[in-house]
């Protein structure tokens, strides 16, 4: 008789991520994960008390994958937006899990930009374009909303933009939002 393979937490989370990548958030069930692992559902519930706990771990892992992708592919504010869009394009199902599903993170963009990395980026943006902190924060938020819209369109196949079109759209929006702030004296 072949030795039993011990199903570990990392194996379960990895299998769950692959379920989402290949079949979407709706495939995040104990049976699908167990099937991918080649086991019954019992090992899953030996490691996780319930599916909600496992789903939270999957969301955390998807968020880590997004962060790794964004920080690997970006050097500044505009690169970060492009990396975010690239993630939505390349990891459609993980993007939808994070931002377009019932499992999504409940934080709003307004609350999400209050972390230290974003505060640093906002301070750098303010200094580079001559805006006060609050105006730069508003510009940053407007750009993230615009960027998220493009990313959502790509993740859902609502429209396909080329890389050149994406860069042109982001540049145009940034210029318009910035000029609006400077024109209004905000």
Give a structural overview.
Helix content is 74%, strand content 0%. The chain is built from ten helices and no strands. It has helices at 9-23, 30-37, 42-47, 51-73, 77-90, 92-99, 109-112, 116-129, 133-155, 163-184. α4 crosses α5 (77-90), α4 crosses α6 (92-99) and α9 runs antiparallel to α10 (163-184). The N and C termini lie far apart (74 Å).
How are the elements arranged and paired?
Blueprint lengths: L8 H15 L6 H8 L4 H6 L3 H23 L3 H14 L1 H8 L9 H4 L3 H14 L3 H23 L7 H22 L2
Helix pairs in contact: 1-2, 1-4, 1-6, 4-5, 4-6, 5-6, 5-9, 8-9, 9-10
Helix content: over 70%
Structural class: mainly alpha
| Spatial separation of the terminal alpha carbons | 74 Å
CATH topology: Tetracycline Repressor, domain 2
CATH uppermost class: Mainly Alpha
Query: Which of globular, elongated, flat, extended, rod-shaped describes the shape?
Result: elongated
């Amino acid at each position: 008789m072949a030795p039993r393979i011990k199903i570990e937490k990392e194996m379960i989370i990895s299998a769950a991520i692959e379920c989402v990548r290949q079949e979407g958030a709706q495939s995040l069930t104990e049976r699908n994960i167990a099937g991918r692992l080649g086991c019954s559902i019992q090992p899953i519930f030996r490691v996780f008390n319930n599916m909600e706990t496992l789903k939270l771990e999957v969301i955390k892992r998807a968020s880590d994958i997004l962060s790794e992708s964004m920080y690997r592919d970006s050097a500044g504010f505009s690169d970060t937006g492009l990396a975010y869009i690239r993630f939505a394009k390349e990891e459609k199902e993980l993007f939808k899990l994070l931002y377009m599903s019932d499992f999504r993170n409940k934080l709003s963009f307004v609350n999400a930009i209050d972390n230290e990395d974003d505060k640093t980026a906002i301070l750098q943006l303010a200094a580079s374009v001559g805006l006060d902190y609050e105006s730069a924060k508003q510009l940053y938020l407007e750009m993230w909303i615009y960027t998220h819209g493009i990313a959502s369109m790509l993740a859902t196949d609502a429209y396909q933009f080329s890389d050149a079109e994406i860069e042109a759209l982001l540049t145009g929006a940034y210029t318009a939002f910035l000029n609006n702030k400077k024109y209004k004296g905000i």
